[in-house]
Amino acid sequence: MMFRTGLLAGCLALAACAQGDAASESEEATAPTAAEQADAALAQAEEDIRRFLLQNYPDAAPGQYALAFYDLDGDGANEAIVHLISPFFCGSGGCNTLVLTQAGPVWREVANMSVSRTPVGVADTATNGWQDITVTIGGGGGEWGIAQLAFDGEAYPSNPTVEPAITVETLGTELIAEEPEMLPLEAEAASTE
Question: pTM (2 decimals)?
Answer without folding.
Answer: 0.80
